[in-house]
Design brief:
The protein is of the alpha/beta class. It contains twelve helices and eight strands. A six-stranded parallel β-sheet has the order 3-2-1-6-7-8, sandwiched between helices. A two-stranded antiparallel sheet has the order 4-5. Helix 2 packs across helix 5 and helix 3 packs antiparallel against helix 12. It is elongated and about 90 Å long.
Amino acid sequence: MAALGWLTPRRRSATARSVLAGEASAEAARKSVPAEEPAFPVLGDDKAAAFFDLDNTVMQGASLFHFGRGLYKRKFFETRDLAKFAWQQAWFRLAGFEDPEHMQEARDSALSIVKGHRVAELQSIGEEIYDEYMAERIWPGTRALAQAHLDAGQKVWLVTAAPVEIAQVIARRLGLTGALGTVAESVDGVYTGKLVGEPLHGPAKAEAVRALSAAEGLDLSRCAAYSDSHNDIPMLSLVGHPYAINPDTKLRKHARQLDWRLRDYRTGRKAAKVGIPAAAGVGAVAGGTAAAIALHKRRR
């Protein structure tokens, strides 16, 4: 039986060095478990609110372009303008960020289209257009974030360069508190084709959030803001809880440098690089190009 002694494990007493090794290993294992983040949003914190950018943050694509499609369907403008709207929307989805020149063209087109129409008429049409083109483009992940704030008893606002009438429709349909958006001038309930001030874009968004927070008695250090665009860094920098949602390249880099939270609800590796759903981007370009070609042939 002695020959089989090597099969029996030997019991050795722990040395001081082995005790030290064991304790060090246990401590390292304990530290490797990530600490739980404090609950956020904080339930019942009435000094906190959330501010959400709209285009590519709450909704895939640009709301103004979808609105333009709805107006075209209702004969608000000619077919030659539809190709421009289609291409701008395709470019926006491919690039994944706002180009000031494209956005200005879209706003100028929209202003010229609605000039002379009644505000009430556009508000009513906006409800229909939401159902036709926008409802299916809401990002479920971002919608869940907004709902978490609502469930915590906090107010939730859209903050967008889109016309305030469109933003208000979307906010209402999503059950949000309200919306801050670009205000088009109207006289006696009729659009003049001009803006009041300038588009609510970039620094203007930050000023709107600051003004609303002061009026509502909010503590910005306890508020949250969500956006996909580096253009909204001024707004994100105002609050204590900034989130980069589906971020463009510049915002992603900035967020990582400042340790901001990131959420990306797009799919595919390409989405992380260029800021679009991989399949959707190709489809948007193809669709926009096809629309332009079809319209060109039709005019000929």
